[in-house]
Amino acid sequence: MNQLSSRQVVLNHSNQVFVKLSWLLITLLALTTFSWVSLPEIALAQTQTAPPPSRTLQPNKAPAPPNKSSIQPYLDRVVKQLTEFQLGNGMKFIVLERHQAPVVSFLTYADVGGIDEPDGQTGVAHFLEHLAFKGTKRIGTTDYKAEKPLLERLEQLDSQIRTAKADGKKDEIAQLQAEFKQLEAQAAKLVKQNEMGQIVQQAGGVGLNATTSTEATRYFYSFPSNKLELWMSLESERFLEPVLSREFYKEKDVILEERRLRVDNSPIGQMVEKFIDTAYKVHPYKRPVIGYDEDIRNLTPDNVQKFFDIYYVPNNIAIAIVGDVNPNEVKRLAQTYFGRYQAKPKPQSKIPTEPKQTQTREVTLELPSQPWYLEGYHRPAITHPDNAVYEIIGRLLSEGRTSRLYKSLVEKQRLALTAQGFSGFPGDKYPNLMLFYALTAPGNTVDQLAVGLRQEIDRLKTQPVNATELQRVKTQARADLLRSLDSNTGMAQLLLEYEVKTGAWQNLFKQLDQIAAVTPADIQRVAKAAFIPENRTIGKLLSKQG
Questions:
Q1: What is the distance between the alpha carbons of residues 533 and 90, in angstroms, rounded to a whole number?
Q2: What HEC string does 260-324 produce?
Q3: Separation of alpha carbons 154 and 131, rounded Å
Q4: Half-sphere exposure at residue 125, Cβ-oriented, CA atoms within 13 angstroms
Q5: Rounded to whole angstroms, what are the CA distances from 394 to 65, 273, 377, 527?
Q6: Which of 121, 117, 115 has the alpha carbon at shortest distance from 252?
Q7: What phi and psi, each to the nearest 5 degrees, are found at residue 533?
Q8: Tell me, what DSSP letter sits at residue 113?
Q9: Residue 258: partners with Cβ closer than 8 Å, 6 or more residues away
Q10: In terms of Cα–Cα distance, which of 265, 262, 275 is closest to 374?
Q11: Closest CA relative to residue 425, chosen from 23, 42, 125, 8
Q12: Contact by Cβ (8 Å): 135, 356
């Protein structure tokens, strides 16, 4: 499996760090403090460059957090070790010193994802992530001067082929395609495959990877601490002068195959795509991050370049560096390498506001599949005061074998083979969904599952959660988040996620105190307001007969 061109697709979960996808455990950042098992084979909310490598550098361990209910002492220690600075062009850096091991983790966070794509160009953010590993004018090529005119001619031929197809000129199409294939082969001979990955690996780096979600694109890997300047050089050049047309058409075929695997040939993939399209009317959360098939086919190098020029500007990029580093040295090198970027206007968000849902929505598909049942409710964004309450509700209903849904639907009633849910789908920067889903056990129906699921949801409205159960999920939430902060990579990811989405990285730690403050009355209040028929979207994937 090619590390930089193969993709695994995962759901984006608003407050979570580790997600299990089918046969593969994928380390990825989202934002959730509770864990969940993802729907298999879904290409809708986040894509990742490659599986994590089998070998990893030993992570730096964070100082053990206090055993008190407040996270403040832990936060105080982080504050002392953390340095923030911003370059004159607007690019922001967060540097956290951890000197327990000679390792540094880097995360480049571009504040752009699927929701920012122009109409008719869905998938362009994800496509750009693929192409960002193809190299620059110096990396990834044996002779860029010879390669450049070939790439330009390929783009011209692709445009001519499209026109000929629209005009039905079969003979002309065949002639153009033959020339295209010949030139593509010539250009391929000038490509140095995966040169960036090889440079990183030879220097002792690991974990070179990236993810694209509805709201962000993240690039990350780790190096021995004596390779700080090498990272600065590689990463700054990668976005200073990328060659986004290199192997463009080859990568398009890879992405189309990914979509076929994760959506078109996957019943549950099709179901989830239809589900979010039903749950949202105008907000771009309704669109799959991987893109629609027709849009992917029609994307051009010019589309990707224009998208890059708008969104990959210094003041729309933040970088976290966590590990065995000197912040003064980081600042000096950042100015040398990233200070070369020209300041540009920050892109203005034009995201339409989703109107309030006023009646139950439903979508049903009949496909060769075991029956699945999905049920979602709109909820506010991560910055809302009740965010921690929604996270606790998600954990009460869906956290592992001790959760209410598992105990009721899987163990007691035996209606489902699995029953899960999570908060923050398909993103959390804007008002989003709390999604529940279950796979029916043989001999049962999705309607039976719907009744069983609804009973557990209604219990939250009518019966206060007892103190023991509530304390258990709070303890789990605290432990899960602190565990995710135990590695340099986890800390880097979450610091930037909260910095960009909430306006301050300190909110990462305040989240724990907010969770600790949730009361049974809060849970009842939010459940009564959110879990109502008018706010409900239903998805039924039925087994196609014959």
A1: 46
A2: HHHHHCCHHHHHHHHHHHHHCCCCHHHCCCCCCHHHHHHCCHHHHHHHHHHHCCHHHEEEEEEEC
A3: 16
A4: 33
A5: 25, 22, 12, 11
A6: 121
A7: -55, -40
A8: -
A9: 7, 9, 43, 47, 290
A10: 275
A11: 42
A12: no
319 neighbors 92 (Cβ within 8 angstroms): yes
Separation CA 363–CA 273 (nearest Å):
11
7, 198, 354, 427, 432 from 283: Cα distances, Å: 26, 40, 5, 11, 10
301-311 and 124-131 are packed helices; what angle lies between their axes, rounded to 10 degrees? 90
- Cα-flanking dihedrals φ and ψ of residue 94, to 5°? -120, 120
**Gap between the Cα atoms of 430 and 405, Å rounded:** 27
Q: Can you tell me which residue has the tokens 């580790």?
A: 18
The distance from CA 138 to its chain's CA centroid, rounded to whole angstroms, is 29
CA dist., res. 416 & res. 371, Å (int):
10
Residue 131 CB coordination number (10 Å)? 21
Encoded tokens for 496: 């930037």
Phi then psi for residue 295, to 5 deg, are: -65, -45
Give the number of C-alpha atoms closer than 13 A to the C-alpha of residue 29, restricted to the C-beta side: 27
Distance between terminal CA atoms of the chain? Answer: 36
Q: What is the DSSP string of 211-251?
A: EEESS-EEEEEEEEGGGHHHHHHHHHHHHHSB-TTTTHHHH
Dist CA 101 CA 95 (whole Å)? 16
Structure tokens at 343: 């300041």
* 486-511: pLDDT as tens digits: 889 999 999 999 999 999 999 998 88
Average pLDDT rounded to a whole number, residues 320-344: 97
Could you tell me the pTM of the whole model?
0.87
CA 69, CA 515: separation in Å to the nearest integer?
10
Q: Are 240 and 232 in contact (CB under 8 A)?
A: no
Pairwise CA distance, residues 19 & 38, whole Å: 7
390: its two tokens: 């929604």
**Distance (Å, whole) CA 489 – CA 507:** 18
What pLDDT sits at residue 30?
Answer: 27
Residue 49: closest CA among 133, 121, 114: 133
pLDDT of residue 402: 86
SS3 content of the chain, % helix, strand, coil (to 5): 45, 20, 35
Q: Rounded to the nearest 5°, which phi and psi values hold at 514?
A: -65, -40
- The vertex-9 CA angle with 8 and 15, nearest 5°, equals 120
Alpha-carbon dihedral sign for residues 11, 15, 19, 22:
negative
Tokens of 133: 């590993």
State the chain's mean pLDDT as an integer: 87
**Structure token digits, residue 176:** 């153009």
pLDDT band per the 50, 70, 90 thresholds, residue 484? confident
